[in-house]
Amino acid sequence: MxxxxxxxxxxxxxALLELAEERGGLPLAEAAELWDVHxxxxxxxxxxxxxxxxxxxxxxxxVPVQADPFAARQAQNVRAKxxxxxxxxxxxxxxxxxxxxxSTTAFVVAEAxxxxxxxxxxxxxxxxxxxxxxxxxxRGYLTGGERExxxxxxxxxxxxxxxxxxxxxxxxVSALGLHAGSGTSESTLAQAAVKGALARASATVVLALxxxxxxxxxxxxxxxxxxxxxxxxxxxxxxxxxxxxxxxxPRIL
Length: 253
What we know:
Layout: H1 9-23, E1 26-27, H2 28-35, H3 39-51, E2 55-58, E3 61-64, H4 69-74, H5 78-88, E4 97-100, H6 104-112, E5 119-123, H7 126-132, E6 138-142, E7 146-148, E8 153-155, H8 157-164, E9 168-173, E10 177-179, E11 183-186, H9 189-200, E12 202-208, E13 220-221, E14 230-232, E15 251-252
Helix pairs in contact: 2-3, 5-6, 6-7, 8-9
């Protein structure tokens, strides 16, 4: 439903900024439809907000400069992600081909890789790829695709095709939610499609997520539990919170 198009410019821009900060970004076309105004009006609003240093324009819209969703998630559950990464490293033998998704957990795994450990690593995560370039022993590849600000990632058909071009020994993926009845889930179809492509190209799929994601669901279904070979959390493997998954997964670390 359209919002009132006769709002004065200052009020409309404040509302645009609030919505962009809430979502982590706002497409121009959607904003024009919501406010029932011409796209050029929204474009001028975006230009003024950018001039004020409140947003940064990206293809098709804006993202708030004071809201960095990836950085915010990096700061969450840091100890848990470090414990998860420590459990995953022994699963990545020298010479292996490894796929990493764009999650903050996979980013911590990339950071934890020994600099001289010989691996081929392919990722759609921009932050993870930057870390990999600083490790002499790792041959790192960044997929192509369309930039997605929310996850500092690349998504779309090019990303899926790039993952499909490899035979991975191990894929390390995370998720927004994990539920014993429906598997993993994501916030967007694009993220779910990319993770599906990565899993299909991999001999072993490692699902890495902290305990806050257990028995939760996001809006888009992603990987079924029968496609996951190893579940890695920060918990002790005997923890009762992992009981719902024992009948479905071959291995829990």
